[in-house]
Write a structure and sequence with these properties.
This protein is an alpha/beta fold and 371 residues long. The protein contains eleven helices and twelve strands. It has three domains: 116 residues, Rossmann fold; 70 residues; 151 residues, Heat Shock Protein 90 (2-Layer Sandwich), CATH 3.30.565.10. The protein is elongated and about 90 Å long.
Length: 371
């Protein structure tokens, strides 16, 4: 414990001078630099001093001006690094537990502290609280680094990959200097690999936004039939390449929802692409849109290889790939369905999956969003 408190800054916020002096003497023995505050406002004023950061705050819940919970809530708005331990009197455990839910790192009963001269349990509580806070701070730092890393890598890769795809498109469609069949075959393979790489980059970039809480929607009233038609254009090309039949069932009347058209198209693109990938040549895929009550419902169904029922609960998990011999050679990031779920959830909707896991009976995804 000596090393834990050595040169650590500690602030005690308690209206009892006796308790404050006792804590200062006790903690100073172990090398801590202890300051005192007799009220909530005084404690907050010390916490707001420029350049001042406390490693540990011992906070009484009952104060003469504002209660300790208010102090904690105001503290956590600008300080998520200081470990906070609640000092509670007899019968105050319920309030202390509520404080832990609001961002405290532990609580200690004063009665147990002042009885006897063995403070091992007290110091153990402080140690646990400081380690808990250190873990939270480290996780936030790692999450921030991870999000920055994803964003940096994907942004740095998107620009040159876009240039490659544009250049390939110009060469492949140059009527003045046509390619030989062999050259065209080679460049088509390169173009397919480049577009696949761009899709992977976009998936990682979207995941980074979701993971960091930065996924934003540009919502406005749209006719979801138009979103479906836009998505079907690309899907039909992909389905035709595998001699598959794509059935599209749209209502005659507009289905208007307050939604982000680009993100909704991204959801349909992903679901249709999966249906095409996991359905053998000659198979069938259905896209349906209809209104049910105050919801718009999309269904994407296929008669492909299906998903084993025991794997359905984890299908939307991060990096999830359905295992199996029949799925070998089907590539992806394992992030697509996670992104689908988060986009739908951000719209206030939900997405479900149904499958018996029987080849030929396929899989059905059902997406509902409020109108």
């Amino acid at each position: 414990m000596n090393g834990l408190l050595h040169h650590r800054r500690v602030l005690t916020i308690d209206d009892s001078l006796t308790v404050r002096n006792f804590l200062e003497r006790l903690l100073s023995r172990w090398g801590a630099e202890v300051e005192q505050a007799a009220s909530g406002e005084e404690g907050l004023s010390k916490l707001h001093q420029p350049g001042v950061q406390y490693d540990l705050i011992l906070l009484d819940l009952v104060l003469p001006d504002i209660n300790g919970l208010t102090v904690l809530q105001r503290l956590r708005k600008h300080d998520d690094q200081s470990a906070v331990v609640i000092l509670t009197g007899e019968g105050g455990v319920k309030s202390a537990i509520a404080a832990v839910r609001d961002g405290a790192d532990g609580y200690i009963e004063k009665q147990a502290l002042v009885q006897g001269d063995d403070y091992a349990e007290f110091f153990y509580g402080l140690e646990q609280a400081m380690e808990h806070r250190a873990g939270i701070v480290t996780k936030k730092q790692l999450d921030s680094i991870k999000a920055d890393f994803y964003a940096m890598i994907t942004h740095d890769l998107r620009s040159p990959m876009g240039t490659i795809i544009m250049g390939l498109d110009m060469v492949l469609n140059d009527e003045k200097e046509p390619l030989t069949p062999h050259q065209r075959h080679i460049l088509m393979l390169v173009n397919e690999a480049a577009e696949k790489t761009m899709r992977l980059i976009n998936d990682y970039l979207d995941y980074a936004k979701i993971d960091a809480g930065y996924l934003k929607l540009n919502r406005h009233p749209i006719d979801l039939r138009e979103v479906a038609r836009d998505s079907v254009r690309l899907a039909r090309v992909q389905a035709d390449a595998k001699q598959q039949t794509l059935h599209v069932e749209l209502p005659d009347e507009p289905v208007v929802a307050n939604a982000d058209p680009e993100r909704m198209k991204q959801v349909l693109d992903n679901l249709l692409s999966n249906a095409i990938k996991y359905t053998p040549e000659g198979g069938e895929i259905w896209l349906r849109l209809y209104q049910k009550g105050f919801e718009a419902v999309f269904e994407v169904e296929d008669n492909g290889i299906g998903i084993p029922p025991e794997l359905l609960p984890t299908i939307f998990a991060k990096y999830h790939r359905v295992p199996g011999q029949s799925r070998r050679g089907i590539h992806g990031t394992g992030l697509g369905l996670l992104i689908v779920k988060e986009i739908v959830k951000e719209h206030g909707g939900e997405v479900d999956v149904h499958s018996e896991g029987v080849p030929g009976k396929g899989t059905k995804f059902v997406m509902r969003i409020p109108l």
